[in-house]
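Predict structure. Chain length: 196.
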Amino acid sequence: MLGQRLKSLRLGRRLSLRELAELTGTSASFISQLERGLTGASTASLNQMASALGVSVAMLFEDSAAGQRGVLLRSERPSLPPSDGCRKMLLSRPPLSDMEVYVGEFEIGGSTGPALYTHGDAHEMLVVLRGIVEVSLGDVRHVLEEGDSIEYATSTAHRSENIGSGRAEVMWIIAPPTSVRAELDQYRAWKPLAAR
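Prediction complete.
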């Protein structure tokens, strides 16, 4: 479903694979594989795609044939293909104008991607539902266990990783949704000042 929706949005904006790749800093072959469901995307890549297409990440999951609004069974959750050992799922039917809510399931060692990333200028809360998760905010790392939460600005470079010995599950609440308003340059990989 994600791949079909991505292709539909890209074609609706009359963008070639190459043009979308240039806007997002990815490759045309990566986007083609994503559209065909042959690969997954990191959270950062997904944010880049949504921003370039002028939609929220939640809108990438929109299904016009969806059932009753307000009710979403676990088996019907729109889901991204797993990437970097993390699967991200939408917890409500899009579009929500005030917030985005996701659940993430991490394999042992799974993460939101290899680099810290930012997305827009909103408020994000992460709640650990199961396992042990390390949340990096810039150079500062926080180890959170089941029931712990952390809040931060989405403009702060961040990354989440399962550092426990079993699967981990988290919930992200982002208000307001960031992808529609985000600037593409906010998605560049973050590097400590000393490394720039």
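Summary: The helical segments are 2-12, 17-24, 28-35, 43-53.
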